[in-house]
Amino acid sequence: MKQIIGFLINNLKRIGIFFLFLIAIAFIVWLLPKETRYKYEYQKGKPWLHETLISPFDFPIHKNEKELKHEKDSILLNSPPYFSQTEDVLQKQTEDFKINFNNVWDSVYKVDSTEILKLFAKTENSKDLIFSWCRSLLSDIYSNPGIIQFPDSLKELQQTALIIYVHRGNVEEEFQFNSFRNQSDAITYANKQVSTLIIDKFQGNSIIDKIFKELYFPKFIIPNTFFDSETSLLTRSQMVSGISLSRGMVQSGEKIISTGEIVTGEKYNILESLRNEYELTTYNPALIIGQTIAILVGMLMIVLFLLNFRKDILEHFTKTLFILTLIVFFIFLARFALTWNVLSIYLIPFTLLPIIIRAFYDSRLALFIHNVTMLMIGFFMPNSFEFVFLQIIAGMMAIFSLANVRRRGQLFMAAIFIFMAYSVVYFGIAVVQEGSFESMHWNNFAWFAGNGLMILAAYPLIFIFEKIFGFLSDVTLMELADTNQGLLRTLAEKAPGTFQHSMQVANLAEEVIFKIGGNSLLIRAGALYHDIGKMGLPHFYIENQGQGSNPHDEIDLEKSAEIITGHVPYGIETARKFRLPEPVIDFIRSHHGNTKVQYFYKTFIKNFPESKVDLYKFTYKGLPPTTKETAVLMMADAVEASARSLKVYTEQSINELVEKIISYQLEEKQFDNAAITLKEISEAKEIFKKKLKNIYHSRIEYPK
To answer: What pLDDT was estimated at residue 500?
Structure first.
């Protein structure tokens, strides 16, 4: 029992990481659709590569989106509009006209009573006759069949509608649209009837003409038939909902397609109908086992990759949690978009996955994680080949365009390149599948543009993940490497010699990392801050001393060694006070490793040969390097500092110095825990030699 408890305690971190993978696998399997996956892959315009397919059951042939849209548009275009006619309009306008008529007649009669009596000498009730004629005209205009008003939104429909339906009371009647008059036509018709009456009946009599002018018929002619939007929309909705989703049937046992036969548009539609029916009507509980195995294999590939290339991530709980969280999150986004069909799957910026991982790790890891994630999403994505191919190419483009993020404009250019990658690849696939430009879904290019714009969210997301998980991005490293940073300015003021030394070390180390591979931004930032501990007592370090006395001459050797070695713990304390990231603090901790202060150690042995040496007092209180970057910095720091002590700068003296310094570090086993090979150390030595020769090359003596 004790052994089991001891094993659990000693391997607690590994057990936690193991459970992280189990939780991620379980969540991804839960997200996957539980319908049986259709086993055939096919593309429009390409040969059928499987065995001859026979229908396993009866199923309808579903109409494709283009056909359904065409039928819907046809209904919306050709469905007759509905109007309602208001009967009260005729009654009200007749009453208003009667009042106006009486007023006009009385006013004219008072002025021209003699003329009116002459005109109607042989006719009784002349006033009633004229009013009766006018009322009949109004009734004719409003009732046969009426005066229609079209809203501005239906101007286009006004040109095409042949049949309309009109509600008159409780009765719905069908009319020819052109049987109705609009207000302008009704007024024209009324004026014409009045003119005809005056000319034919009254021979153009001026009195009658005056009466009708003052009556002013047009003001009593207004629309009485109005568009009924509610009924029209309801009717259209019912007609659209009544559209049949299928056309024809395929009988059980009927041959669908033969091996090698081209998948035409019609065959493709039948195959898609079979796939939909197959996934809807079948359910296999064993599917969960298959999905679990598939996802398990994908996760196993990630584990093997990390074991072989990035073991540091697999041994770090937070780093593993970060990568698994991103994988699960993007799979969730894909499942959400597919299930709810709110947005196109092409709008989801899957390329953010490699961009975010690349911000904290290397390009190889970012691309591998992206590819495995897209393959897992391909399990439930329709047209999975098209989807996976598109996303892998776009992910590669994202990695290539952001190999080194050192300018803000790079992300904008990456968004453009990603949009172009999506568009070009999709265009090629669509032309092959559709066989023509007309059938292509051009709106997908708009989704690709939106996808590119969403890539610009990478910077704020990187900042958020940086703060949540305590990581270090290239953007932050560039900010830290700015020599105008407050801490570096303080170093330049308090210890100018140390600051210049740090700049030289940064240049040397960065040059090596460029050649042997590694994070150049990280090593530059680490080099600039590695000696900030010297700000405490800057005059005790030779690079900050002038021509005056050396303060070490006034104290004993053990005290001098204590001061010199003390700049490491003081530097770590200062770095944490100013909240420098832990990866940068690692350079402070490891730039001397656990080596000895050679000058004071050897001087002590020489001056006190019979005394017992306390090695602890002459040993740096740090740790040996654990990464390639910290190992290179240790070499660059020692080489640069020692090169300043050379009395004569020749090719031989520089070569011997570099070999001596790095050989000593190897003998002290300072690189045993670092991810650096002997070949890379050999390359580093050659670069140091070359750079130092360039720095300390001989110069001509200028004349006095």
So the answer is: 92
- Rounded distance between C-alpha atoms, residue 328 and residue 309, angstroms: 22
Residue 89: what residue type? V
119-123, 330-334, 640-644: least confident range = 119-123
Place of tokens 């197959």: 278
State phi, psi for 427 to the nearest 5 degrees: -60, -45
pLDDT (0 to 100) of residue 510? 92
Question: Span 660-681, mean pLDDT?
Answer: 90
- Contact, 602 vs 608, CB < 8 A? no
- The amino acid sitting at 544 is N
Per-residue pLDDT tens digits for 52-96: 888 877 888 888 777 778 888 887 777 778 888 887 888 888 888
- Contact between 193 and 137 (Cβ < 8 Å): yes
Burial class of residue 485, CB neighbours in 10 A (0-12, 13-18, 19+): middle
Query: What pLDDT sits at residue 634?
Result: 94
Q: How many other C-beta atoms are found inside a 10 Å radius of the C-beta of residue 160?
A: 9
Q: What is the pLDDT of residue 76?
A: 73
- Tens of pLDDT, residue by residue over 545-568, are 776 677 877 788 788 888 888 889
| Cα atoms in the 13 Å half-sphere on the side-chain side of 510 | 15
**Residue 345: count of CB within 10 angstroms of its CB:** 21
Radius of gyration of the chain from its Cα atoms, rounded to whole angstroms? 45
- Nearest alpha-carbon partner for 458 in 468, 447, 473: 473
The span from the CA of 57 to the CA of 254, in Å, is 9
d(CA 312, CA 309): 9
Burial class (CB in 10 A: 0-12, 13-18, 19+), 655: middle
DSSP characters for 383-429? SHHHHHHHHHHHHHHHHHHTSS--STHHHHHHHHHHHHHHHHHHHHH
44-56 mean pLDDT: 81
Spatial CB neighbours of 283, under 8 Å, sequence gap ≥ 6? 34, 35, 36
What gap in Å lies between CA 290 and CA 288, rounded to an integer?
5
Region for residue 459 given its phi and psi (left: phi exceeds 0; alpha: psi -120 to 50; beta: otherwise): alpha
Per-residue model confidence (pLDDT) at position 325: 93
What does the alpha-carbon distance between residue 569 and residue 551 come to, in Å, rounded to a whole number? 21
State both tokens at 641. Answer: 């500092």
Domain 474-695 top-level CATH class? mainly alpha
Please tell me the distance from the alpha carbon of residue 452 to that of residue 351, in angstroms, as a whole number.
Answer: 9
Helix, strand, coil shares of the chain, percent, nearest 5, are: 65, 5, 25
**Percent over 70 (pLDDT), the chain:** 89
The answer to whether the CB of 226 falls within 8 A of the CB of 84 is yes
As a whole number of angstroms, the distance between CA 522 and CA 510 comes to 9
HEC-encoded secondary structure of 568-580: HHHHHHHHHHCCC
Q: How far is CA 376 from the centre of its chain?
A: 19
- Quote the pTM value: 0.59
Separation of alpha carbons 507 and 435, rounded Å: 57
Q: Which two tokens stand for residue 171?
A: 């009765």
